[in-house]
Amino acid sequence: MNWSVISMLLFIVLAPFAGGLLQGVDRKITARMQGRQGPPLLQPFYDLHKLFSKQSVVVNHLQDFLVCGFLVFIVFTGALFFWGGDLLLVFFALTLAEIFFIMSSCSANSPYSSMGAQRELMQAMAYEPMVLMVAIGFYMVTGSFGVSDIIGNSTPAIVWLPGIFAGFLYILTIKFRKSPFDLSTSHHAHQEMVRGLTTEISGNILGLVELSHWYENIFLLGVVALFLLDANWWSVPVAIAVCFGAYFLEILIDNVFPRVKWQSMLKSAWLVTLVAGVTNFMVLVLVK
Amino acid sequence: MTIISFLILFPFIAALILAFMRKGTPVRKYTLFACCALIVAGAVYFVVNSLSDGHTMSFLTETHTLDTVILIAEWGLAALVCYYSFRYRKYYCAALSLVQTGLITWLELGGHAEVLPAAHIFSDNLTIVMCLIIGIVGCLICVYAMGYMKDYKEHHTEFKDRRSFFFAMLFVFLGAMFGLVFSNNLTWIYFFWEITSICSFLLIGYNQTEEAIKNSFKALWMNLLGGLGFAIAIVYCMLELHVADLQSLVALASQPGSAAIVSIILLAFAGLTKSAQLPFSGWLLGAMVAPTPTSALLHSATMVKAGVYLLLRLSPALCGNLAGLMVTTIGGFTFFATSLLAISQSDAKKVLAYSTVSNLGLITACAGVGMYEAVWAGILLMIFHAVSKSLMFLSVGATENSLGSRNIEDMHGLIVKLPRLAYVMIIGIAGMFLAPFGMLISKWAALRAFVDSNSILLVVFLIFGSATTLFYWTKWLGTLVAVHHNSEPIKNITKKSEWFSLICHSVIMVALCVSFPLISVSLIEPFLEGMFHVTMPPIIGTGNVIIMIMMMCLIAILPIAARFLTLGKKNQVVMSYMGGANTGDDRSFTDSFGKPKRLYLANWYMTELFGEKKLLNVSLILSAAALVILTVMAIGGAV
Fold first, then answer.
1. Per residue in B338-351, pLDDT tens?
2. Where are the transmembrane segments (chain A) (predicted)?
3. How many domains would you assign to chain B?
């Protein structure tokens, strides 16, 4: 067995634990920022356990099916990424997973989850250009979309891609569902449309959604790490440190900014893509 | 050779037969089915034959008699245009038609042109691909039309029943398309080009309402304008370059600094009008007043495909010059602008129309880049688009007949109301934009080619356009899968022939997704190697193909996975939460006064951001300006 298969298997097995711990840390730090004690570090795991042991009420069985599609394709996305696959294909699989999720909340046919679905779709439209730009940036720098080729480079990609990295951090706030861009569903209690996307999802099905989010978060941090990784061994600790830094930054932003309207989100995300991403791309075209 | 003449001529004969068959519905029905079967069989026979014999064929170098016949037929077409133009007082159409027919006649009869002898009929792998699209998708649409028009007549008693004429026109269209893809001589291509313009004019005006006539003339003048460009290109080719066929022209223009670029630009202009690129998108959007089979035919197998077919043929001559820049800019901009416009539309046919224009924009941009990866993507896009768009139009048409509306909002909960049609539609939508299905593979290759050619503008258009495409399709998908509680299926009046067509489309769609590497290896790659004189590296590696097939399998086994993941749970089914108590059918809730209150879930259209009022004129002006400036620059640079 080679390294790529091992890292893929590690992702599939360990990502839920890492994701759950990350959420535990997140809740702890958030609580401290707000002057609270916060729940125990392992609280997300207790929550998940409880969700799975509850009898759940569902609005229809199509929804269960679509949520499973979401989970399966998120795991597929991450596995393909950690296996070292083609970055564009990874992002396409991510989009497919996202569409399963949106369809699941549309199928519930309730006002709150429908509204959440429309907003989620808006979020997808806001971040999609930047996500594609990330793949293009890596391709320009290393001449390949393959994750395994990208990490085999002699210098970290961030040297060439500072603008694209900044742009990616910006849309990461949307992907992590952090305020100011937690429009479709929120971790905070002050939500005007109940739970948005997940309003009609409960019990074990909600547990599956939660699990998918943990997988997704670890995958996204993997993309952050990809900017830092190169052929040298010490790039690994650096990348892990930067991932923690990025996540801390997201927590900070989450606690500092109030939620914005979708118009501001769409416009600002596209503007950042144009200014940071496209400018970086233009420079690359000229230099490379 | 015989089979090619059969494919070109037989549809015209079939049209004649159908035109004179009135009232006798069962006889007419089976005649139509038989004609379709013959055409499909002919197309398949031709494809098998030419694949086993070797790939490229050319015939007919000397064709004086046939040329005369075509010239007479062209005057017939001009007379037809004049008749309609005078009848409806649209004199500019008559003028356009007379000028171009006059030009061609002067050229043919004046004897000014001394040209290199070349084959009039030419066939290679691109012809084979087109032939399959026209033959199979086109005929399936004709089969569908038989059942559809019966219901259409019952729903729309206000229109005169001109079905014989309608069916005849469908077949004329197919014949003209076959002629167009088999011809190599520019005058011949031009002749068939004009037939498709006039056919689409007649089909769009089928209902003879004021709106239909207005829109049909819009289609006519735009396409005649393109035809004028085509005619001028022919004159220039013959007088200045002494070539009269497409292959030699492209070969000539592929040399850097060639004067042939002027005619390439004019031909590209004709291609842009026919494939409804901005600023000429109006005619295709107007075409939706016609019955659904017309739209399906115009959008998928014929008409607009003629435009992109010509552009793809021209693509080696467009690589890295100003003409190419003109084509890519218009194509890329069209892709982006029309996918934005599609967001604000709720009429299903209009969304489909904008999406067609948008996808054609992408194919156009691929052709304009002129690199073999891009052309590879363009050809695959064309194939996938033909099948999935036809499927979408036909399922929307069938839904409209059963549901009485084609508004996407009314398709809310279609999966309960008309489950089978909803599934077909989901396959169509998935084919339009989702990984691992068709279109996405080509978009992937296109993106790579755009990055490789360093075209920053194109990359920007593509990434933003992909995001907006995602929005309007997913919105539609979400509407389809909404499950209303306690809601009954409504009566599905879709005819057997319509079902046959829909199911064939779905099967072809799925088969294409699985077999595209095979198509690429056996048809497209040999074609591109001949066209660009390169040995092609695989565009999508074997590893990635396997991954995509794995994704397909994952989707296929998802129902089992879903069972497994929710194993051992007795989930209780409840009503959706509505803030007040749900009254039981997900359509109303009990308000604070204890009265039931209606509730209506709508999608987001955001007309204040993406509406036609806001965007359409701006994009028309921008694209027209870009077209004029770049054309002038390109011609100025060449002369």
1. 999 999 998 999 99
2. 6-25, 65-83, 89-109, 130-151, 157-174, 218-249, 269-287
3. 2
